[in-house]
# Entry
Amino acid sequence: ASGWVLFGTAEREMCGWVAMDWLSDLASWAWARHHNEWSWYIRPVFLIPYCWFAWRRRLAGMALTLLALLTSMFWFPAPDTPSPLAVEVLAAEKEYLLGPWTWWKLAIALLVPGTLVALALAFWKRSFAWGLVVVNTMVLAKVAWTFVFFSRDGALYHLIPAALGLVICNAVLGAAWWWSRRPKTSGPVARGGGVR
# Structure
């Protein structure tokens, strides 16, 4: 019986090592693909469908959007020669994530799900104004974070996709806000008349 126990223990340990190796390889593969800067440009844009699904109160759509946001870092192939600044930015980010976790770092990490919940609640409650405030706060806070933990050149390099994403989000959500506030007619307009 003891032999079977030892065999089972060794088998479980081997499975554990295999799983750890697989997860390590997967993380390395995903991180290499994250050096493709298309993944940087596309990520802020996921806030638009997230807001749309929150406005429509579709939890499944919100969950799928978050899944797409999380996995988008490895959608694009790893570049043959990544930009030196991209390498620097991601190296600093990796050092931050793998470094010691203090209370303030945990508090910063909790801001991410907190702001996503706040964003969902704003559009769930049909408030474009608060939704835009949350979107801009999220992106600007991330930009401020990069200037604290990245080099100046790295932060400025990261600023380009962040600023472009913010402009797109503001433009689309602002247009949707204007569309939602447009005067609505209750029926066909009489010939020769108009909406007053």
